[in-house]
Amino acid sequence: MKAIHYDAIILGAGAAGLSAAIYLSRAKLKTLLINEGSIGGQMVLTHAVANYPGVHETSGRDISLIMKKQAKEFGADIESNVEITKLDLSGKEKLVEIDDDEIFTSDVVILATGGKPRKLGIPSETKFKGFGISYCATCDGDFYAGKDIVVVGGGNSALEEAVSLTKLVKSITIVHQFDNFQAHEYAIEQAKKNDKISFIMESEITEILGEELVTAVKVQNQKTGKEQLINTDGIFIYIGYIPNTDKFKDVIKLNNRNEILTDENMKTNVDGIFAAGDVREKKFRQITTAVSDGTIAALNAIEYIQTNKK
Q: What pTM was estimated for this model as a whole?
């Protein structure tokens, strides 16, 4: 198989990857964007985005569609819903193989592979995934119209998605393991003033019950050990993300949470490899911060390519 060469390859098509593709392709560099899932990454899971500068309110899906269109119009090639079957980032020329039959090489790679939802880690979670357990309100919210549900988590995603779900469901019980929320004050205020939402703090789900579908959960208080049974038609889980770094963990330097370490220019420890978005070590994870990362990574990649072509 003959490899097709690009100036830059971007792995991951969330906000960071799409932003990088827009900047690179607009700079007239031959750019390939590869994503193992659908375009948009975690961004498409956000039902309502009301804090994106310059936009009154939209959805994560709509933002991703516009960004994809921009990248393609500037000339970026896009491969989505494919499997990366080989990856070699160690040499001067980087190599990516997809679906065992297409090989691409490049001078630069930007890693923007994001993360996957963290799970509760209890046995019954696997059994009921897709049968009452969801990690995406945008994807599955309609299935629970007029029903009672549980939302697990206490960060921005948990509270914001809970508020969005109240437009559909009958009631929501938020279960959080700590005695305080980790979300921004605005998200906390919106959730607390919503009559459809109630809270169980300092507690964890210990068991999910049901036959074919979820019917109830057991919730245990962290301090007292007391358990209570909550009848529910569904569970939405928002307890963080695990970075998608398995494919390059032996080459790229990671921290103890398996997040990629970069400098302020998004450079990794490997020459010609940059990282952007939720996959890298950072404090804040927002669409805007991912866009910023992708922009910085792309601009430094452009400089790297131009310098090494001289």
A: 0.81
